[in-house]
Design a protein that fits this description.
single chain; alpha+beta; Cytochrome p450; four-stranded mixed sheet; three-stranded antiparallel sheet; 9 strands; binds protoporphyrin IX containing FE
Length: 499
């Protein structure tokens, strides 16, 4: 060995030792969350079991409010229970408001190379897209709520007629009918009242994309967190790429039509409202330009997030009504006594329909349709309940745990809408505040108010006009199919008109 090699080797050893000591010193004070033992390469994925929320409850019991796992190669921290989830989601520095760059998220953005609204990083473009979307949605949910009321009521009436005609005597799968109802509502809300929605061209294209996306994305899909699997299963990636393109093309069509026919001062729908809000924002003109591609991404996320979550929530509600006929009768009786049956249920009736509201809340609590929220990402080193979470860690907000916390709910595993009703026969505010179905903090669902209006009007009007009945040979399973948004297993019901 030459002297030079010896000196270089020594220098390298000293350098590495200094680096290691520095790392030890920096991390000596750190307190990382503990967690269950996992496997090399795949991490904890094989341990999730058939129903991950239950497995996570066990880990929460064993390791406390903040525990660590690995999603494939991604270091992940799971946050559980009301206090910890609220504190982390509302972190003052937005430390956990990022999104991880999972494979599906990359595929969604690859056509435009821009951040999407729901799955984009916490960038200035994301923040601006979110601001525009919130403002546009607010325009229709606060100032012009009659637009939603008219749209949802009339589409729900059509839906009721179809259900009764199809399933009065023969029990059937109502899934496609519910998907069609919700797609028609969201589509016309975003792109204009009277827009034609065809089942083959629109509903099926959007739903096929959502099904594919749901299966491959979220907090436990192996393809999402083990990106090398794309070389072993290229057809899966191709399927999602193709379906994303088909679904986005429907949006592109609307974007072009809106730019071509936009008239300032005549805001017809959410797409117009976004274009108008950007034009009004003189202050940020040099920092952000709303391009057609950006409008496309924002609308695509509003469309997809809106259709997927709302139609699945309605499917859960109708399933629970058929499974718990006493609860269904109480909802009907309340509507009959307070609103009657000669006119439709309206938004102004909402405060008085206490039991109906309680059923909506209890189904969302019990099911927790998006049990682990959309995955978050630590953008800097920060702490959750005294535990260190390093930059670039995936952070999962376990919303299911908030809805099933024994110390707060007492008997969370029992379906009991009455839990939301206080002694004074009104909704219990504290219980309502413990519903995190729409997430918390900066990335909280942008469509929450719209979703609540839509669900209330459609559910209460369906309950007023018809009754869901369990066929004798149907089990009505309530164990869901996991994904990003949990879905009920396909079920058949009879639907009878109320007289
Ligand atoms: C029952 C219906 C709905 C439920 C349960 C629901 C739930 C959620 C949840 C849990 C999140 C993730 C929050 C987080 O990351 O912490 C979310 C985000 C989002 N939701 Fe909803 N949602 C619903 C309806 C809607 C509707 C109707 C729209 C739009 C029309 C919508 C648009 C979005 C968007 C764009 C995001 C991403 C927000 C962001 O990353 O900044 N959602 N939703």
């Amino acid at each position: 060995m030459s002297d030079l090699t010896f000196v270089l080797g020594l220098a390298l050893t000293v350098f590495m030792t200094v680096l290691f000591l520095q790392w030890l010193l920096q991390n000596k004070e750190k307190k990382y969350p503990k967690g269950p033992a996992g496997f090399p390469i795949v991490g904890h994925l094989p341990l999730f079991g058939k129903y991950p929320p239950k497995t996570f409850l066990k880990w929460w019991n064993s390791f406390g409010d903040v525990f660590s796992i690995r999603l494939g190669s991604w270091n992940t921290v799971v946050v559980n229970g009301y206090n910890a989830v609220k504190a982390a989601a509302e972190h003052p520095d937005d430390a956990f408001s990022g999104r991880p760059n999972f494979l599906t998220m990359e595929i969604l953005s690859e056509r435009t190379k821009e951040d999407r609204l729901a799955f984009g990083n916490f960038s200035p473009v994301y923040l601006k897209q979110r601001k525009l979307a919130s403002k546009a949605l607010r325009m229709f949910t606060s100032k012009r709520s009659e637009v939603i009321e008219e749209l949802v009521t009339s589409e729900t009436n059509v839906f009721v007629d179809i259900l009764v005609k199809k399933y009065n005597r023969n029990a059937g799968l109502i899934e496609l009918d519910v998907q069609t109802l919700v797609t028609k509502i969201i589509y016309q809300f975003l792109y204009g009242r009277g827009k034609t929605v065809e089942v083959e061209r629109h509903v099926k294209t959007i739903i096929e994309f959502l099904e594919e996306f749901n299966e491959l994305s979220g907090n436990g899909s192996s393809l999402d967190v083990l990106p090398w699997l794309q070389y072993i299963m290229p057809w899966k990636v191709e399927a999602i790429r193709k379906n994303t393109a088909r679904s986005d093309d429907l949006v592109t069509e609307q974007v072009h039509q809106h730019y071509d026919t936009f008239v300032p001062g005549n805001i017809r729908d959410v797409a117009d409202a976004i274009i108008a809000s950007d034009a009004d924002d003189e202050e940020n003109k040099d920092r952000y330009v709303l391009t057609r591609a950006r409008l496309n991404l924002t609308l695509a996320d509003l469309q997809d997030a809106g259709v997927d979550t709302t139609h699945k929530t309605l499917l859960w509600l109708f399933l629970y009504m058929a499974k718990f006929p006493d609860v269904q009768e109480k909802v009907f009786t309340e509507i009959k006594d307070i609103v009657g049956t000669n006119r439709s249920v309206m938004l102004k009736d909402k405060p008085e329909l206490v039991f109906t509201n309680a059923v909506l809340l209890e189904v969302m609590r019990f099911v927790s349709q998006v049990p682990f929220s959309i995955p978050h990402y630590a953008m800097k080193n920060a702490k959750i309940q005294g535990f260190d979470v390093d930059k670039d860690t995936v952070v999962i907000f376990n919303l299911y745990s908030v809805h099933h916390e024994i110390s707060f709910w007492g008997d969370p595993e029992i379906f009991r809408p009455e839990r939301f009703i206080s002694d004074r026969k009104s909704l219990d505010k504290e219980k309502c505040n413990h519903i995190f179905a729409f997430g918390r903090g900066r990335r909280r669902c942008v469509g929450e108010i719209l979703a609540q209006m839509n669900l209330f009007i459609s559910f209460s009007n369906v309950m007023q006009k018809c009754k869901f009945i369990k066929p004798a040979d149907e089990q009505l399973h309530i164990t869901p199919i996991p994904g990003l948004v949990y879905t009920p297993k396909p079920y058949k019901v009879l639907v009878q008109e109320r007289n």
